[in-house]
Amino acid sequence: MRRYRKFHRYFGLALAIFLLISALTGLLLGWKKDANWIQPPTQKGISKDLAEWKSLDELAKIGQTALVAYSPEQKGNKIGKMDVRPSKGVVKVVFKKGNWEVQIDGTSGEVKSIDKRYSDWIESLHDGSIISDTFKLISMNLLGIGLTILSLTGFWLWYGPKLIRAMKRRNIKI
Predict the structure, then answer these.
(1) Which of 151, 120, 134, 125 is CA-nearest to residue 22?
(2) Which of 57, 74, 76, 135 ranks highest by number of CB atoms within 10 Å?
(3) 40-117 classified as CATH 3.10.450
(4) What number of other Cβ atoms are within 10 A of residue 165's Cβ?
């Protein structure tokens, strides 16, 4: 039992910083749709029918132009991704630098919102990809295996003494 306690304690301490970062960022990600400072609320467009929408190329150009008009120092900021939301009638143009997001009505091309979007940065911190994809793979596997080991040793530290006491009461040799 003493070896399990010592192992459990030091293994838990070694994983604590990763668990804390993962837990706190996971908590923030759980709130991203409800906290506008994490991710701007999704606006609504005119039509959900993609046949009525402007082309993605046109919407991308509208997004870039709108961002530069809003913040001229963003000139040259490349598009990181475009999040197409047919059910809302909008396209979210997300830029690589500065966490910028421009929401555009897919049908009219009207800019619905320009705001900062921190959810992608929080997610990359949460899963370790902020450092590299290799780090993400290694750290997430270590966290998963580590939590499993801590759960098993924690269970044994709780159940083991109960089992030993029960065996002693029944005069079973240990």
Answers:
(1) 125
(2) 74
(3) yes
(4) 10
Rounded CA-CA distance 57/69 in Å is 18
Query: 22-65, pLDDT tens digit by residue?
Result: 999 999 999 999 999 999 999 999 999 999 999 999 999 999 99
Question: Do 91 and 83 contact (CB within 8 A), yes or no?
Answer: yes
Hey, where are the domains in the chain? 1-38+118-174, 40-117
- Tokens 């706190």 identify what position? 24
Burial of 123-162, coded b for 16+ CB within 10 Å and e otherwise, reads: bebbbbbeeeeeebeebbeebeebbeebeebeeeeeeeee
Write out residues in the chain with pLDDT < 70, as ranges: 174
Hunting for tokens 């970062």 — which residue is that?
21
Token reading at 141? 């596997």
Buried-exposed string 60-98: b where 16+ CB fall within 10 A, e elsewhere: bebbbebbeeeeeebeebebeeeeebeebbbbbbbbeee
Q: What is the pLDDT of residue 168?
A: 87
The two structure tokens encoding residue 167: 């065996």
Give the pLDDT score at 4.
77
Give the C-alpha separation, 63 to 45, whole Å.
Answer: 15
Return the pLDDT at 173.
72
